[in-house]
Amino acid sequence: MKTAKDLIIPFTWHERHPALLDRFFYVPAQYAYSQKIFPFFEQEQPLYIEYCSGNGQWIGERAKQNPGSNWIAVEKKFERARKIWLKSHRENLPNLFVVCSEALTFTRYYAPKVREVFINFPDPWPKHRHAKHRLIRPEFLSALCQILASGGKVTCVTDDAQYAGQILKVFQTPEWRLLFQTTDLPDYGKSFFKDLWLQAGRTIYYASFEKV
Q1: What class is the 40-211 domain?
Q2: How far, in Å, CA of 141 to CA of 172, rounded?
Q3: Contacts by residues 179-183 (CB-CB < 8 Å, ≥ 24 positions apart)
Q4: Per the residue annotation, which of 123, 159, 184, 195 is the catalytic one?
Q5: Average pLDDT in the 54-66 region?
Q6: Where are the alpha helices (DSSP H) in the chain?
């Protein structure tokens, strides 16, 4: 049985480089990026990415329920990413791969072509002076366009009403078409943050877009 001690980043700060480990891909912060292709799965299947995966509850269930598809969890915080990695081994999910990286960096330089993208509860950075740190902004959508074929979909989920409105505005470009927006999507799946915010009485906002 795998433990947290089995996942160690094998280099010092000065020697840092992208590291492909056992079902785990690590991209160090402030690294000089390259477009080297890394093989994430041995078996070619329809591929899906979840950004902001947290502790992996949502994507773990998706991978378990859909063994004929491959799933990549992208999480910036190493401790959270390691929890997802442990889940993939504990529950024997060879179709679940974990990426510990800043989302834009991974998407621009390393992400493979995918069928669909899910962005679950990204940090809203509510203060105006911090808006530049939000994930869903034009440069990130441009990167998504490079990995999604025409007809590929992006679904965004947030509990922040202001961020939900901004998401709709950012996607208002010729490259994207709004499929739906709703606050009621009972079959979407469970996650730590969804349960947390529902228990706090917050509204959950869903929006889905298609690449034209």
Answers
A1: alpha beta
A2: 11
A3: 179/153, 179/208, 179/209, 179/210, 180/206, 180/207, 180/208, 181/205, 181/206, 181/207, 181/208, 182/206, 182/207
A4: 123
A5: 96
A6: 57-65, 78-90, 103-109, 138-147, 161-170, 192-199
* pLDDT for the residue 17: 84
pTM listed for this prediction: 0.92
On whether the CB atoms of residues 120 and 91 are closer than 8 A, the answer is no
pLDDT, mean over the chain: 91
Percent of the chain with pLDDT over 90: 70
In 3D, which of 140, 114, 111 has the Cα closest to residue 38?
A: 111
- List the chain domain ranges: 40-211
Phi, psi of 200 (to 5 degrees): -85, 0
Backbone angles phi, psi at 147, to 5 degrees: -105, -10
pLDDT in tens, 85-138: 999 999 999 999 999 999 999 999 999 999 999 999 998 766 666 567 789 999
- 123 is a catalytic site residue: yes
Residue 65: per-residue pLDDT? 97
- Sign of the alpha-carbon dihedral angle for 80, 85, 91, 93: positive
In sequence order, the 6+-apart residues with CB closer than 8 A to the CB of 36 are 18, 110
